[in-house]
Design a protein that fits this description.
The structure holds two protein chains of two kinds. Chain A is 70% helix and 0% strand. Chain A is mostly helical. Chain B has five helices and eight strands, in the order H-H-H-H-H-E-E-E-E-E-E-E-E. In chain B, helix 1 packs parallel to helix 3. About 5% of the residues of chain B have low confidence. Classes of the chains: A mainly alpha, B alpha+beta. The structure holds zinc ion.
């Protein structure tokens, strides 16, 4: 199971949003705002900034939904990728932005808020299952691979920045990231 | 760049962090449309995005939703005057957040449907217009068809008449009676062509004055004992021409003269009008 196996309904919602249907936007927001806010918070490390980025992402989606290309992946992949990119932009432009170094393995052990995705419990279960799969896949990675991957994806650091922080050769960092993602891909393929 | 180099960079590319030069080279390879590398990019983009799923989901403040839907409502209903942009924080701490979300959503939705309905109505009006045009074309074609059918019937009739006329003029026993309009109008003339074998005759008149619809011309056979026998009524066209074809009830030998009078429409049994044409049978 992966983000790719999200319901086909998302494609319909994206088309309706591109056609200017606000009900579709309402539904997409209810479905994914919790997930996307988590991405924003993890990256910008500030609740208020994270919510502003979230609002900007959905607003951008409303105005430019036609930019989405189904051939490049599922709508949820697009949403996550767009959100990550905007959150990293915000983090870089913000003077208050500080590097977030929480170990994701620890975060994974936190319980989800009881009221998350309250108006769509079925969806919450699905994310929980996928989340558990990804978490266990990440936990199965060697520590340096996992950290390199997190620093690249969530902290938006360049390979040389990661190399400097982790005190590792640049080539090693690249190979950690590559191997980590390939391992993750193999697990998702079996998913 | 070859596919093997590209495939090593793709996993690094999706999590960011490639040098500008590497990223540019990879992008230009992907832009060639290489199917294998593009498929790999799609798969690794999905793998990268999957990392987000391990994060514990957050619960956004309802004000974010309210602010989004309010923006969309203003954006959708572009007839509404633009208000100065208010930060979503304006809604923060407001107990009315849920109501605002609902109102904003309804506004956006109704503006959307208003636009859709307006658009559909315009399409409907255009279709109606096209339908009317087709209908009017059809009506004119139907009228053309009717007039063609009438013309064909008329031509057929004329053909039949000319055939009869030809037969009549070619008959050996043809007798001609000349009528003149001298008493009233010297330009008016008439002829009777009589076939003694078939007892058919044909009368033609030329140069008679057209009559009002309340009147008609009537042809009379006058016997030797001065009895006037009605032989039929006819009208003339705008140039004063008229025709009459009939079978004679009796032998033409008994007829001494032929006359045309103007009579009330429908004709009469005994002449009441004035003589317009007259001729004697030799
Ligand atoms: Zn290639």
């Amino acid at each position: 199971m992966s983000v790719q196996s999200q319901s086909a309904d998302d494609y319909v919602l994206m088309e309706a949003i591109a056609a200017g249907d606000p009900t579709a936007m309402d539904r997409l927001y209810n479905k994914y705002s919790g997930l996307l806010l988590a991405v924003c918070q993890r990256i910008v490390n500030n609740r208020t900034d994270a919510e502003e980025v979230l609002l900007d992402v959905f607003w951008e989606l409303w105005r430019r939904a036609s930019r989405y290309e189904a051939a490049r992946g599922a709508p949820v992949t697009y949403l996550i990728t767009l959100t990550r990119s905007r959150a990293i932009d915000r983090k870089r432009s913000s003077k208050t932005g500080s590097l977030h170094q929480v170990d994701i393995g620890e975060m994974a052990n936190l319980n989800l808020p009881a009221n998350q995705a309250a108006d769509n419990p079925g969806k919450a279960v699905e994310f929980a299952e996928q989340g558990a799969l990804i978490r266990s896949a990440m936990e199965s990675l060697p520590g340096p691979q996992r950290k390199a991957l997190e620093m690249a994806y969530f902290d938006g650091l360049s390979h040389s920045e990661i190399a400097a922080k982790a005190r590792l050769p640049l080539g090693t960092v690249k190979s950690h990231i590559r191997l980590g993602l390939i391992h993750l891909r193999d697990i998702l393929r079996k998913g | 760049m070859i596919c093997q180099q590209a495939s090593e960079l793709i996993p690094l590319y999706v999590v960011g962090g490639l040098s500008d030069n590497e990223a540019r080279q990879l992008q230009s390879h992907l832009a060639t449309g290489c199917p294998g590398c593009n498929a790999m990019l799609t798969e690794f983009t999905t793998v990268g995005a999957s990392l987000a799923l391990m994060l514990p989901q957050a619960q956004p403040n309802p004000d974010v939703h309210a602010s989004l839907m309010a923006r969309i409502a203003r954006h959708t209903d572009n007839t509404e005057p633009r208000k100065p942009e208010q930060s979503w924080r304006w809604y923060a701490m407001s107990g009315l957040a849920a109501a605002i979300v609902l109102a904003a959503t309804l506004m956006a939705v109704s503006a959307y449907w208003y636009r859709m309905i307006k658009q559909k109505n315009q399409q409907l009006a255009a279709m109606q217009e096209r339908f009317d045009a087709v209908k009017s074309n059809l009506n004119s074609l139907t009228a053309n068809y009717r007039s063609a059918v009438q013309t064909a019937a008329l031509l057929q009739l004329q053909l039949k008449q000319s055939e009869m006329t030809r037969k009549m003029f070619m008959a050996k026993q043809l007798q001609v009676v000349a009528l003149s309009g001298k008493p009233v109008d010297k330009h008016a003339v008439g002829r009777i062509f009589y076939n003694a074998k078939t007892h058919m005759w044909q009368f033609c008149a030329m140069g008679l004055k057209p009559l009002p619809p309340t009147k008609t011309y009537e042809l009379w056979f006058i016997t030797k004992d001065h009895a006037k026998k009605a032989a039929g009524t006819f009208n003339v066209n705008a140039s004063g021409d008229g025709m009459l074809t009939a079978a004679v009830g009796q032998n033409m030998d008994q007829i001494s003269a032929v006359a045309v009078t103007d009579e009330p429409a429908g004709g009469v049994a005994v002449p009441t009008g004035s003589i317009q044409l007259i001729g004697t049978v030799q």
